[in-house]
Amino acid sequence: MDSIYFTAYNKCDIKTQASIYNENIEFFHDKGGLATDKKQLLKSIEENICNKVTRTLIKGSLEVYPIHNYGAIEIGYHKFYNEEEPNAKSVPSKFIVTWKKENENWTITKVISLH
């Protein structure tokens, strides 16, 4: 699911991202604060990320832990490259994602993004 989500993120596929974010999303960003409005979050991604920022997972960093009767917790490191800041150094940052499985569908309910 990480690969599916971030392929959509990197390709600006807002429709797929919208299908993956849970209606009750809580997105914690150490610099941007807490976002709980799914439509606003998607709008922000479209305006600030699309065709500007690319995410790369740090190979070997991904950990996934099943959560009984809920879904899974994903923890890892990734890098972001901002095309508008080509000389900026991209350093690995930690992320934690809570995935909820309902009727064979996986959605993101919580994100903690630390830079």
From TrEMBL:
Residues 3-108 form the DUF4440 domain. It holds the Pfam family DUF4440. InterPro entries: DUF4440, NTF2-like_dom_sf. This is DUF4440 domain-containing protein.
